[in-house]
Amino acid sequence: xxxxxxxxxxxxxxxxxxxxxxxxxxxxxxxxxxxxxxxxxxxxxxxxxxxxxxxxxxxxxxxxxxxxxxxxxxxxxxxxxxxxxxxxxxxxxxxxxxxxxxxxxxxxxxxxxxxxxxxxxxxxxxxxxxxxxxxxxxxxxxxxxxxxxxxxxxxxxxxxxxxxxxxxxxxxxxxxxxxxxxxxxxxxxxxxxxxxxxxxxxxxxxxxxxxxxxxxxxxxxxxxxxxxxxxxxxxxxxxxxxxxxxxxxxxxxxxxxxxxxxxxxxxxxx
Length: 270
Prior knowledge:
Largest sheet: 6 strands, mixed
Oligomer: single chain
Structural class: alpha/beta
Number of strands: 10
Strand content: 15-25%
Strand order of the largest sheet: 5-4-3-6-7-10
């Protein structure tokens, strides 16, 4: 099902004829095949195959914050699953797939290629790669994308976006590439666990802070602060006019992606 939605969303209008199919509301009337329609007694439209191959880049955050999780999956496991699902769909669509694994620096670059052997290599890296550093710098990664990919790509940026400000680089990248952000979160990020005095550690900086989790004011203040920070991260994508897909570790990555592809399908037709 998802493969069909992916193909519909990311198929260009090339010049190579592929097939005719039943007309559906929203199809451009310029593509109606009048001879077939007259013969069959109902409208049919022509479909075309993408003239040029598409390049799909997967920009995967492998920083230390991905080791956090309070559900069955850590954030880094959910991120790897998302990247793997997109990679499989891209290969089935005969697209080239490449990857950038990043922390506060680019840790690994895999040039885009076609083929099942290549995509398996990419997916192994998603699940097994061990980064050298802990921090996150999305802006540096987007600048790197601009240098290594001169032509337009479809780029999925998968991260929890706990990064210094990257709005400027986001705007530049979105003008050159079709950029889609996938925003990861975990329900435990927004709530303190019940208890007394606890130590909270920033996984990327190693900084510790003591919090009284039994104090109601502290708990409410923590939740308010964390949800505000999350909303501010989402607001960056609206400012840059970049689509953002929200995926939590306690939800289904496949369902979230399918909903997005359906939304893109409807938006493209309208």
